[in-house]
Design a protein that fits this description.
746 residues; alpha/beta; Metallo-beta-lactamase, Chain A; eight-stranded mixed beta sheet; 27 helices; 31 strands; 32% helix; 21% strand
Length: 746
């Protein structure tokens, strides 16, 4: 039934396509190439959508800004290369589309040959029937792609004679690196260092795109002179069809329709290094678009290039050949600075108004682009910048969708003007102002009687939603600060690096240097899809000038190691130290004395979670005496209760509300009350709930019986031993605030 309905819908779309396909065409920037928004673009036409690159975090941008990519209309995705910046968001987007597309129509995935290897590597965590891609390779022998809306020519560069990922090292630097790596291995004696030194030379693809021709203007006076009636016959002529009148007169389109207008041209130029410039500027495929060429000049050129390429004389001279009227957009992290405010800014600032300590201001309000000049008449690109090609009346740039920096003070003032919200904030502030007395009272009457996570411990919730990223919650990731100089990640869902960047801003390099290891609970994409990006950024932040790098420790299922190995072999050089989570079933501690000193962890235990195959829960004990347990994804587990016994802090998934217990069982997750009950059985001093279904992105309902020892996690919520005790006091004002949010959205 559904198939028939959709087939009829597609048929109607096809029939009306000739009349409507050219009415509205625009190109929208979904990522401007900044650190948290890899370069990605959406070409919108009436009946189709075309995506160019699919970087990590793209789903949140789409959801946050209500960009509708209909599964029946997104049939082609074009990649400029096969690295994480281009493909990081692809598995997540594909899974989401698969959920929405009942027909399961394949998506054409166009790109370099190595793109297929990336899709194959995802078999370690995704059933491939859910991806439903048709991989189509672009090579130098590929003439072009064409459909009813666009014609697209690939420009392929696949051999520049040097690696994109590693700078050349002299022999002395290599010797230093090997010597230091040996010392580093001695510090992690039970782990294995994985490093594929020479990943395959990546293929880089630029694209020349031309829109379909516009029908010529219908000449009414000539049509009337020929006796063409004012009915559907005129439409046939407009669409290029010859007609025959009742009197036998044959009327051709050119008899009463003006000449067609050529479709506008735009180009996506990817030139990642100086080594790529000679092949790119020497490609003959571009020559016909120069000012003296036979084709029209491009309306728009998008440059995915670092500044050293854009400032290169040979490159600049080449771009000038396309004429003075071509508009140039720059997309890179050198000048497209700042951080994309993906979450609901107003919603988060309401939380900040409740507690500036627990919900600190994010750094996108403070970061600015690097002070570098771009050539005259070139534009530094913003995410969501739009260029309208059609209709002519709208042609040009549209900045109305660009996210503006929010004014925190005005939002707080707006909140305070609403009496119900104002009362909620005052209720919370009164408790916080009386912190000293209340803390003494809590310590005297509550089982919480000592530092829950130590003197310098801190928990930062980077992602608190399940399955897929949404406007309010990213997917799973938690940063645990162990002491002043070290921290770890528990899970690393897609967009984790972007969340870190938004949270820490210019301080992120320090955090990356302090990051010691990543625990991956299981192989569902919402828990590990961001690990490659974090490993790459950690290496960039910590690698010394002589090439020495101490890789991150990765603890998790063997499948994550297999995935990283394949990614490493075909794409970018990634290094890590892997230990299977099963090695921590044993009571003995496998960490060396040096690692104990750095991390302060004296015991780390794991058990199998009751979820999917190879899923784990974890509990760790710090030398200061505090203990933390993290469930990952699981339905209630007695084994987890055992290893987490007497935990100071329990972080437990609460995917479903209590009335969805049957669905929780079928999907092997926990309900809110079940998670709280695990905390009671564990004798945990405090329980924080996380991993909420995106069906209810605000506040899940639960009994007040345990509300004095229970908190709700939100993205960017930051707690320490002192502030964690105030989470229960936020429940009432949060309920009032988010009830207002839901009413606004409805």
């Amino acid at each position: 039934m559904i198939f028939k309905q959709l087939s009829r819908k597609l048929s109607r779309i096809s029939k009306s396509m000739s009349a409507s396909k050219l009415n509205k065409v625009y190109l929208q920037i979904l990522g401007n190439g900044s650190k948290d928004a890899p370069a990605s673009f959406l070409l919108f036409t009436e009946n189709q959508r075309y995506l160019f690159n699919c970087g990590a975090g793209i789903q949140r941008i789409i959801n946050r800004n209500r960009i509708k990519i209909h599964p029946l209309k997104l049939r082609n995705i074009f990649m400029t290369r096969a690295d994480f910046n281009a493909v990081g968001g692809l598995p997540g987007l594909a899974l989401t589309i698969n959920e929405e597309d009942d027909i399961k129509t394949p998506i054409n995935l166009w790109g370099p040959p190595s793109l297929e290897a990336y899709i194959n590597a995802t078999r370690f965590y995704i059933f491939h029937q859910k991806l439903n891609f048709r991989h189509l390779t672009f090579t130098n022998d590929t003439p072009y792609f064409q459909d009813e809306n666009i014609k697209l020519w690939p420009v392929v560069i696949d051999d520049v004679g040097s690696s994109l990922y590693e700078t050349s090292e002299d022999s002395e630097a290599s010797m230093n690196k090997n010597k230091k790596m040996k010392v580093s291995e001695e510090r992690f004696p039970t782990s294995h260092v994985y490093n594929y030194q020479n990943p395959q030379q990546p293929t880089i693809i630029s694209y020349i795109c031309q829109l379909s021709q516009l029908p010529g203007k219908f000449l009414n006076d000539k049509a009337e002179a020929l006796g063409v009636p004012n009915n559907k016959l005129r439409k046939s002529l407009i669409m290029g069809q010859t007609i025959t009148l009742r009197n036998g007169t044959v009327v051709r389109p050119e008899d009463c329709v003006g000449p067609q207008e050529p479709g506008m041209v735009f180009m996506i130029i990817h030139c990642p290094t100086l080594d790529h410039i000679p092949q790119l500027v020497g490609c003959s495929r571009f020559e016909s678009y120069f000012t003296n060429g036979e084709n029209q000049q491009p309306e728009l050129m998008l440059h995915i290039c670092p500044m050293n390429v854009i400032e290169n004389t040979a490159y600049l001279d080449w771009t000038k050949k396309f004429g003075p009227n071509t508009k140039h957009l720059v997309l890179n992290s050198d000048v497209c600075g700042g951080v994309t405010p993906i979450i609901s800014e107003e919603s988060y600032h309401k939380l900040h108004a409740l507690s500036s300590e627990i919900f600190p201001l994010l750094k996108y309000n403070k970061l600015r682009p690097v002070d570098k000049k771009v050539p005259n008449n070139w534009i530094i690109t913003d995410t969501l910048l739009t260029y309208h090609f059609r209709p002519r009346s709208l042609m040009g740039f549209d900045r109305s969708k660009i996210l503006q920096e929010t004014n925190v003070n005005s939002i707080v003032e707006k909140i305070n003007n609403r009496m119900d919200i104002k009362n909620a904030i005052q209720f919370s502030n009164q408790d916080i102002l009386d912190r000293e007395n209340r803390t003494l009272s809590v310590k005297a009457t509550s089982p919480v009687q000592r530092n829950l996570i130590g003197r310098h411990g801190e928990i930062v919730f980077l992602g608190t939603g399940s399955c897929y990223p949404s406007k309010y919650r990213n997917v799973s990731s938690i940063l645990l600060r162990l002491n002043k100089n070290s921290c770890m990640l528990m899970d690393c869902g897609e967009g984790t690096f972007g969340q870190l960047y938004r949270h820490y801003g210019s301080e992120l390099s320090d955090i990356l240097r302090q990051l010691k290891f990543i625990f991956i609970s299981h192989m569902h994409a919402d828990h590990h899809q961001g690990i490659v990006e974090v490993l790459l950024e950690h290496k960039r932040a910590t690698q010394s000038t002589d090439g020495y790098y101490s890789p991150l420790y990765v603890i998790g299922p063997w499948a994550i190691n297999k995935f990283l190995n394949e990614y490493n072999s075909y794409f970018e050089s990634v290094q890590w130290r892997f230990m299977s989570a099963t090695e921590f079933f044993k009571e003995v501690c496998v960490f060396s004395d040096v690692v104990k000193t750095e991390l302060g962890i004296i015991k780390l235990k794991t058990v199998y979670a009751d979820h999917c195959k190879g899923a784990f829960c974890i509990a760790l004990t710090h030398r200061e005496g505090w203990k933390l347990a993290y469930s990952g994804d699981t339905q209630p587990s007695s084994k987890f209760v055992e290893i987490g016994k007497d935990a100071d802090v329990l972080i437990h998934e609460a995917t479903f509300e209590d009335d969805l217990v049957d669905e929780a069982r079928s999907r092997k997750h926990s309900t809110t009350s079940e998670a709280i009950e695990i905390g009671v059985k564990m004798n945990a001093k405090f329980t924080i709930l996380t991993h909420f279904s995106q069906r209810y992105p605000k506040i899940p309902a639960f009994s007040e019986n345990y509300s004095d020892r229970t908190g709700i996690a939100y993205d960017h919520m930051t707690v320490n031993s002192e502030s964690i005790l105030f989470l229960p006091r936020l429940l009432k004002p949060l309920n009032i605030i988010f009830k207002e949010e839901e009413e606004i959205e409805d």
